[in-house]
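pinning this so it doesn't scroll away 📌
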Amino acid sequence: MQSKNMNIKNNKNDFNFWRKLINAWSFFFFAVIIIDFIYTNAFKEILNAIATIYISILAIYVSNKEFERWYDQHEDGHPGEIFVIIWSVLVGVLFILDIVYGKTYELPGAIVSTYIAVLTILVITRKSKELYKLKRSNTK
């Protein structure tokens, strides 16, 4: 029995690591996006690399979270909707600024594609959560 409890604890620690990592990368990515705007696309190429890393870490984090849910080791507490709200506000503001500033600032494609990836991941996890709840209610 102790081995099973220890395994659950290790999985939880692993999940916490990925959550902290995605939070750190989110903060960093948002900061670079804002700095890129302030310096008129000076970091456009760097944003491509950051976007790739960010999406990869987000996919690992969400996959880890979903596996824990399906194996009854995850409790909700960090809704992905918060990430989507932050991304939506950021992208919306950047779209408006892109229109206002015209040719001076160009919204980088990496930001748009990352936003689409974040939305897609949220939709998939919400569907997974619904299916999990349906499965749990049918087994009771």
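📌 and the second one:
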Amino acid sequence: MSYISPKVQDKFDTLSADLKAVILERGESINTIHDLIRVLEDIVKENEK
């Protein structure tokens, strides 16, 4: 189950619905902006393959 910290919720909410869904499907805990950036980078890398 994914967790989005209230500290980064406002940034998370600016993402597209599709991207938010992909992030939530991953089951990651996102506590900081750095966690969010890492997850986004991972998604980009996976889609480049």
